[in-house]
Design brief:
alpha/beta; two-stranded parallel ribbon; 7 helices
């Protein structure tokens, strides 16, 4: 038997944590002593939104609470994508479920019911439910997590006690990856669509264990940020300079030093 690589250890831990997430997020009852962390997906970019959700999810798992994700029809990010009549999943109770599985069997209504209010807006009028102070000392059955808490130091590598025995590097980034995988589980309709498309573009002989996904993001994230004369743009420019293609190949080679089974690159991009 050869020693397990870092990638193999990460994969084993990933499967174990997905089961833990599933158990925590699906209590036998959403009443009684069940406690919640409620997070509303705000109106900034989708990627930033989801990372904020992962941060709130991290807090919920750390505190042994159920994470509830709240999205609204025709509001914020989803307003330009779907509404209740255009949603491909007719059983969806909120926009997130148009494409993804709900994070929990408990709902926004379950969380609100214990506070005696009917809407999230009504909940927000009472700041005692907002996320602040030492979270482990909070006794309220529901904590509202705003998008700003990510910059307030709540997400720390050792905030989750169970991580201590894993001896991982970059624990925060690893948890983000595990959390993203759980929260963005495609619903059956989305999964069927993805499998259909992947079946057309990915050769059958390529396996997950041999493949490294390499997404190249352009669009609103990066650009040359110079005008026609070669001068830098002002504050309305892109967030970052685009990386040269060779940098992605270099990253793949670094992955190969950790996992010798990596043989293929699955390259995706939002630019033609």
């Amino acid at each position: 038997d050869h020693p397990k690589s870092k990638v193999e250890c990460l994969l084993e831990n990933r499967y174990g944590w997905q089961k833990r997430f599933e158990q925590l997020q699906h209590p036998t009852s959403c009443e009684g002593d069940t406690k919640f962390v409620l997070y509303t997906l705000p109106g900034v970019g989708f990627g930033a939104n989801v990372l904020g959700a992962v941060g709130a999810f991290h807090v919920a798992v750390s505190l042994g609470r159920v994470f509830i994700l709240h999205t609204e029809w025709d509001k914020n990010w989803f307003s330009s994508l779907v509404n209740a009549t255009q949603c491909p999943n007719k059983q969806a109770t909120q926009p997130w479920e148009c494409y993804f599985l709900p994070p929990s069997n408990c709902t926004v209504d379950d969380a609100l019911r214990i506070t005696g209010v009917d809407t999230v807006d009504d909940l927000l009028k009472n700041r005692s439910y907002w996320m602040n102070g030492p979270l482990e000392k909070r006794t309220e059955r529901i904590i509202y997590a705003g998008n700003r808490f990510l910059s307030q130091g709540y997400i720390k590598p050792d905030f989750l006690p169970q991580w201590a025995g894993l001896h991982m590097e970059n624990k925060k980034e690893v948890f983000e990856a595990y959390g993203l995988q759980y929260l963005m589980r495609p619903n059956p309709m989305t999964r069927h669509l993805l499998e259909e498309k992947f079946g057309k573009v990915i050769p059958r002989h390529i396996t997950e264990e041999e493949t490294v996904g390499v997404p190249i993001r352009g669009s609103d994230k990066c650009g040359h940020m110079v005008d026609e004369q070669g001068n830098k743009k002002g504050g309305t420019g892109f967030e970052a300079d685009c990386l040269p293609f060779q940098s992605y190949l270099k990253a793949f080679r670094e992955v190969q030093t950790l996992d010798h089974d990596a043989r293929y690159i699955l390259l995706t991009s939002d630019d033609s």
